[in-house]
Please model this.
Amino acid sequence: MLGDNLLLLSAPRGARICLRIYLMEMARKNILDLSHTQLKEFVCSLGEPAYRADQILWWVYKKLAISFEEMTDLPQTLRQKLISGALLSSLATVAEKISADGQTRKVLFRLDDGRTIESSFMLYGRAGSSRERRTVCVSTQVGCPIGCSFCATGQQGFERNLRPGEIIEQVLYFMRSMNKEVDTDLARRPVTNVVFMGMGEPLANYEAVWLSIEMLNSKQGLNLGARQITISTVGLVPQIQRLASENIHVELAISLHAANDELRNRLVPINKKYPLKQLMAACREYFEKTGRRPTFEYALFRGINDSVGHARELAGLLQGLNCHVNLITGNPTKSKEFMPSSRNTVLAFQKQLTASGISNTLRLSKGVDIEAGCGQLRSRWIAIR
Ligand code: SAH
Ligand code: SF4
Model:
């Protein structure tokens, strides 16, 4: 605190006021950062009985409250303490785009330190026997430390991990905004699925991601089934093993993109640390321990990883593993090296994979207008279907 005060004294007056407000905000606990147990402890530290935590959670996750004033069954004194000592939000909306067909929304949020992240919402109509899905794609880091050569986020470098509340609020944002819809089903179940496929590598921010998953899954939180939650990872082997031993068995997607170490080292540098043999063993272990069939993401880039030979190699790697492959046409980024494969090449790749007996899905393009320039998210949302 002494350091903070010295900082304040040396700054001009306007900046001092902003800094003081910022430091006061930082000292306040964001309720969304807390697990159920931590919230109980916090409530007790305010001199209140622990069961008040359940009431607060009910307001936050069931009633989607955005202020403590709304929590009318809490005593006035507690509400006052919460207003002065806690927060319910730390994201500010900077921009929101809605696709022409109205089915995709993409939001840019500003964090409390001025940095920005993006999140998306996508509506998928009923397909065959599957129900309508309302999927939120969340970011877990500002930038990404992994630096995959074909990825727009990787090219931006790494700034920081997101806190649990910053992850959860991305989901709450869409729930809160749709909660007022006239369509009763939409109002009752505004979000059915959450995918950790936005900016960043979720397993490199394990603790915060896990706390957010607990709150998404918990009956007192958003009550989303574990099957409705998907983590996408570049393949951090120790963290995949840790995930396999957790008590909530979420869906796992692995960003593979190459089926031999030489090529994968080039596309996904972390492969040098965790080569394919280790990664495949971790995927097998995940399936054995959780019963969740892993999905492999494979983005096709022109002349890089998209030949029929590459398809055969992929089939060979996955032979005998209970899994599914999502084929995606690569998204162009600033890098001229990685261009999308042509439609015919993608179709030939898929044909070979299918002929080799590998379960797969291909989405060529959904033409989502608002994703232009993102370089990353669109294909994935489409592919996860
Ligand atoms: N870091 C995690 C999750 C975020 S990236 C991961 O890598 O899995 C989300 C997905 O977008 C990953 O599958 C990633 O490989 C893919 N992706 C990144 N850049 C892409 C591009 N230019 N074209 C297609 N998919 C891309
Ligand atoms: Fe990070 Fe995933 Fe992009 Fe790789 S693909 S740089 S792991 S966000």
